[in-house]
Amino acid sequence: MSNPRIATFFITSSTLLWACSLATTVTYDSNAIVINGERKIIMSGAIHYPRSTSQMWPYLIQNAQDGGLDAIETYIFWDIHEPVRRQYDFSGDLDFIKFLKNVQEAGLYVVLRIGPYVCAEWNYGGFPMWLHNLPGIQLRTDNAVFKEEMQIFTTKIVNMCKEAGLFAPQGGPIIFAQIENEYGDVIEKYGEAGNSYIKWCAQMAVSQNIGVPWIMCKHVNAPSPMINTCNGYYCDDFEPNNPKFPKMFTENWVGWFQKWGERKPHRTAEDVAFSVARFFQRGGVFQNYYMYHGGTNFGRTAGGPYIITAYDYDAPLDEYGNLNQPKWGHLKDLHEALKKGEKILTNGSVSEKKYGNSIYLTTYANNATRERFCFLSNSDDSKDAQVDLQNDGKYNVPAWSVSILQDCNKEVFNTAKVNAQTNIYVKKQAKNGNLLNWNWIEESMDDTLKGQGTFKAPKLLEQKGVTLDSSDYLWYMTEVIINETSSWENATLQVNTTGHVLHAYVNGQYIGGQWGTYDNLNFTYQKPIALRQGTNVISLLSGTVGFANYGAFFDMKDEGIVGGPVKLIGSNLNNTLDLSTYSWSYKVGLNGETRRFFDPKLINGVQWKKNNVPNGRPMTWYMTNFETPEGTDSMVLDLKGLGKGQGWVNGKSIGRYWPTMVAEKTGCSDTCDYKGNYGPEQCESGCGEPSQRFYHVPRSFLNQKSNTLILFEEMGGNPFNVSIQTIALGPICGTTNLERTLELNCQGGKTISEIQFASYGDPQGNCGSFKKGGWESSDSMTVVEGACIGKQSCSINVTSSTFKITKGETNGRLAVQLLCDGSNPNDARVQKVKA
Fold first, then answer.
1. How far is CA 290 from the centre of its chain?
2. Which residues of the chain have a pLDDT value below 70?
3. Which residue among 13, 94, 189, 196 has its CA within the 20 to 30 Å range from the CA of 20?
4. pTM, 2 dp
5. Alpha helices of 83-168 — where are they, by DSSP H?
6. Which residues does the annotation mark as catalytic?
7. pLDDT at position 834, please?
8. Over 301-369, what HEC string results?
9. How high is the pLDDT of residue 822?
């Protein structure tokens, strides 16, 4: 590779503050990101500040740094910061400035994706819903109304970062910023207006004068100086549209998101590492994991529609911030291996040699120092390869793997050879966590069941335009006058809806509910009803489960019963009434929402009932108190037995719940084959189980002793099965081969208290189910206990002398399973709030 002229971003004299001694210059060329003249490859990971809490941020960032990351990437979420036009909120867990400062304090860089369209499986793509009703607006296109609002918000975010000194030329951590997001996926649908819009985006971004490069991900024709980047599972074949630009992988999807009714997708550590290694083998410069910590869709922030509340994403840090092992550790080892070659990768020349089908040796060389760094890859998805590099040695390269060779003659990492430990987390019942005393109150519907709303319209309205996303619920109500009943005693109510949930009442009586599925949200509701002579009141409650966040014109997608039709079909099929153009009354939300039943500060003003707590009753509010679990382990609510609704702890929303939405019974496997191009259906778990049963309650939501849990149960469930649980680290396992080192580590300052299994030989099974094989070293348990018991971490060198291995036993492996218990008072990080 040659080193073309470096593109440098200068600051103007108008911002003298930037010219301080801490100023950082960020430049680039096709081989490197250049920071203060130092040529780098960058490892980054996405952590979205509103999907965790401010108390969790330092812990998450520390784990990211420990995992070998150089940078943290985050979106800025417009909707939560400007929920009402020109009324802003950057407090508490929305204080993104504090989050970025936490990143800087850890010594990491920041990639700031301002967007302000984010996608991100976030409700409405991160746009505030008030945009929808602005006269003449069209989102994400050459529209004056939208562009003005977008520029105002973008400028506000940029100015806040400038005032806090957060851009690199000010000595801050931000080294890249993004404008727009994945517009290349939709630009054709917007035609010429899309082309002119994206040019405007680039010009508007440059005018912000931030002093660091701007990027546009997933947009082949991004206008200069925007750096176009790649998103996906694999980006090794990607090339930027300008040969002077660095090759950037801004979203390496480490897993996938999950919808209600779906199985849980996983992506193996081996395949993620293969993707990363191949990217750097092919000239990559910057790589970002999406997500590194997924977190939780608190409140009603989940989009989709039908995205579940957990946003775990099978990320290296799980929903609660715990290490997802072996993925976290395997990627950490990969980062260490790549950093060994950083100077050569960013300064050297490159050559490639093919060894048969799908096998490539890529050599980076510094001609001045004669240093070398090599990648040996095998992209065949089934056949291992034996490669003879002559003077540089012979190597076994498993199928679908990359070996990284320091000095091109020593394997320091292979993507298919996992040497990191495996963590198993177990849920434990908190003290008195299943002895909950419930109070309850029914959702008052006296007004809506009588057809009394707050305004009327002679048609069926679109839901999000009416609710402005202030609630999941909208009441549609109308009256039908029947003069003769003979043909209407056995009538049918038929409602066409664009979803997502519908409940119907006729003359105050519940007729029934229906809902769509993640792959078919639109449905026709059809139920038999009995009408009476005179006035009949039809009350329809439409519920949404997150608004669309992706695709061209996603903002124009109809929600609710808009247009219908809504019909009454008599016993004589020719006798049909189309009610779509009748006078309809509307009411946004539930009475319990308006009266803030979920706010414990107002509990004394609510007449909660203590006796005869109902089981299976829809449209019911439940309240209970529980003790804060001891310790620092993450807390979850097991909502087994409930139907669908929302939950609050001490007035803070933990999101939507829907345990009765069960995944398909087939399609899961106990093992995951990492070989071959990944897709979300390749490796799934949770068949026949609720898509989500456990719901994260961050420790910062809890009081010191007593807490109030409030649930709104929409469909009818059993609150007596609800329990308070914590998530603790259970068994830790590790395996490795001869002449390798096995490292095992307890989290949270705990120490190794018990070795449950240790065997060098041919052990069988996996973590949690290890068994001795046909042979083993008799010293296995003694060696491991001596190396590990009582320590927070231990390293076991698997050598012939350590385990007294004879010549015939050199093809074995060591398998260990242990438990951690107790805490180390000298470990300061024990004091940090994890979740």
1. 8
2. 1-21, 808, 822-835
3. 94
4. 0.95
5. 96-105, 144-163
6. 182, 251
7. 58
8. CECECCECCECCCCCCECCCCCECCCHHHHHHHHHHHHHHCHHHHHHCEEEEEECCCCEEEEEEEECCC
9. 62
